[in-house]
Amino acid sequence: MTAPSGVARLLLVCHASTVATARAAFPLDEPLDERGLRRARGLADEFVPGPAACPPELRCLQTAAALGLRAETDPLLADCDHGRWAGRTLAEVEAAEPEALASWLGDPAAAPHGGEPVTALLARVAGWLAVRTPGRTVAVTHPAVIRAAVVHALGAPARAFWRVDVAPLARVSLTGRGVRWRLTYSP
Fold first, then answer.
1. What is the pLDDT of residues 23-43, one digit of tens each?
2. 8-186 CATH fold
3. Which are the contacts of 13, defined by CB distance < 8 A and separation ≥ 6?
4. Residue ranges of the alpha helices (H) in the chain?
5. pLDDT for position 59
6. Coil, strand, or helix at residue 102?
7. Rg, the chain, Cα only
8. Which of 22, 70, 93, 186 is deepest in the core (most CB within 10 A)?
9. pLDDT digits (tens, 9 = 90+) for 81-107
């Protein structure tokens, strides 16, 4: 099925797994783990070789390459800045800063880690979606960016961000005209 003229078709692909994924840690700019690299390479036949919008982080660039895609860097697709929590596990942060973690999980405008609040991430991703041009775009990006795109596409409140799970190599399709989007999810 082809999209009508003037419609943007986006395929958002989550990067493959990393050591931080397995540890339930706030990510650093780490490479893919062996399992993630193997799984991404195993999916390469499902993708048409060509360009893919990617943030500058290594895990996304490696995923795009493993899928047979040519990465074109777009900083708007960068992961959420987790500030001083980067590299720490959720359990470590909860043990050291339980009030700060509760604040961050309960208030999308909070940034107790000194990084980017969820509301800023949502605005950044909404801005990226608003300038999509007609045609097909593949983007290999982060779970947080895909969550933000889903929240925006559904017109859901910012608090819904935490209710969306995005697994490594998950795919979400959005079809729309920059403002209104239709969502399709593929595991």
1. 999 999 999 999 999 999 999
2. Rossmann fold (3.40.50)
3. 52, 63, 67, 138, 139, 140, 141, 169, 170, 171
4. 19-23, 34-42, 58-66, 90-96, 98-106, 118-130, 143-154
5. 98
6. helix
7. 16
8. 93
9. 999 999 999 999 999 999 999 999 999
Report the SS3 class of residue 53. Answer: strand
Coil, strand or helix: which one is 135? strand
Site of tokens 């991404």: 40
Going by pLDDT thresholds of 50, 70 and 90, the confidence category of residue 177 is: confident
Banded model confidence at residue 80, pLDDT cuts 50, 70, 90: very high
For Cα atoms 116, 110, 92, give the angle at the middle one, nearest 5 degrees. 80
Amino acid at 31: P
Residue 3: pLDDT above 50?
no
